[in-house]
Amino acid sequence: MNMSDFSLKYYQNAYLKEYESTVVSCEENKGLFEIVLDDTIFYPEGGGQSSDKGYLDDSEVVDVQEVNDRVVHYCKKPLETGKKVVGKIDWRRRFDNMQNHTGEHIVSGLIHKLFGYENVGFHMGEVIQIDFNGPLTDEQVREVERLANETIEANVEVVSLYPDVEELKNIDYRSKKELKGQVRLVEVPEADVCACCGTHVNSTGEVGYIKILSCEKHKNGVRIQMLSGNKARKYMNEVYRENLAISNMLSAPMLNTSEYVRNLQERNGQLLSELNQFKEKYLYSLMSEIEDGQKLCLQFIKGFDRISYTKFANSLLESGKGKVVGILNENANGYEYLFISREINLREHVKAINERLNGRGGGKDNIIQGSLKSSEEEIREVLEEIFG
Ligand SMILES: [Zn+2]
User: Fold this and answer.
1) How many whole angstroms from 333 Cα to the centroid of ligand 1?
2) pLDDT tens digits, residue range 166-214?
3) Which of 127, 149, 170, 259 has the fewest CB atoms below 10 angstroms from its CB?
4) What is the dotted CATH code of the domain comprising 284-387?
5) pLDDT of residue 1
6) The 3-state secondary structure of 140-151, one letter per residue
7) Mean pLDDT rounded to a whole number for the chain
8) In the CATH scheme, what is the code of domain 95-238?
9) How many whole angstroms from 138 Cα to the centroid of ligand 1?
10) 106: CA distance to ligand 1 center in Å?
11) Chosen CATH of 9-89 out of 2.40.30.130, 3.30.470.20, 3.40.1170.60, 3.40.1190.10
12) What is the pTM of this model?
């Protein structure tokens, strides 16, 4: 049996939650037991859809893969060959996969129908990710989502077809690769026909809800992230809770939170600019207290931006406070430094400063800058020695 063996139970009836089969073989490998059954309701990972999980009797099934045309159940406990066992799949996980796989077909089919693009990559993880080989505008994405949810409302039957070679020639369907042997087509009337070996819901109404979460440029096309059904509702509930929290914090109406946040950002920008003006004024207020004509005029400050303290350093140099002016601006990682001078070649000293004070940086003859990881005391001592 293999994934194109469409007589397997999960193809015959995707809604079987429990099924009795006979153990054909059981082999231990790397701490797990690889169990093959005569038939199974467990879907093996494939075609972008993740595997089922569940139990065979009391042996937990942690993964299911197709290996050499056989469906292998990776289990925690061994089961005797020839024994009849009851398989139970994790139905929540399976039904989430069915809702999301059918949802993916509806969206891919509509995009193909409306814009002629192919689904060139598909992955079902926490969210469903689909790559298309052409661009889509935000408006087009909204239109696809609207039509996808209309397809759900129409509650049409999702049909599996097993056409023979001749019939297949006359059917227009989507497929990622050349197919050999019996082909299974999954049809969503008015939206899609696609070759597929995954599990699907019986009617589109069961998909419940489709939400396209994002659409971003990817290679020559776009990458869409989406969710369907229960997973989509859970996700949107989280988004709702986040928005509710923002709404409460800002006393903003639920449908107007972004405008309130934008206003907050603008206000924050204004405050920062006002704060910087005050900080600069504070720096200049220090000028009168600083002694004139020092060899080294060293200023330890905290939390200033580079532009402000560079201006301050130039003012100190111009007003003759020192032959060398040094600014040490404390931040979370230590100190940023800036030294300027017209008379002393600073570049000749930068290596010694960095080496002795655990720093890095460089510059030109009359200006050097970088960062230091040393205490104020150590910095004063070393710099006095070099420039004092
Ligand atoms: Zn599919």
Assistant:
1) 52
2) 999 999 999 877 777 889 999 999 999 999 999 999 999 999 999 999 9
3) 170
4) 3.10.310.40
5) 39
6) HHHHHHHHHHHH
7) 95
8) 3.30.980.10
9) 25
10) 10
11) 2.40.30.130
12) 0.80
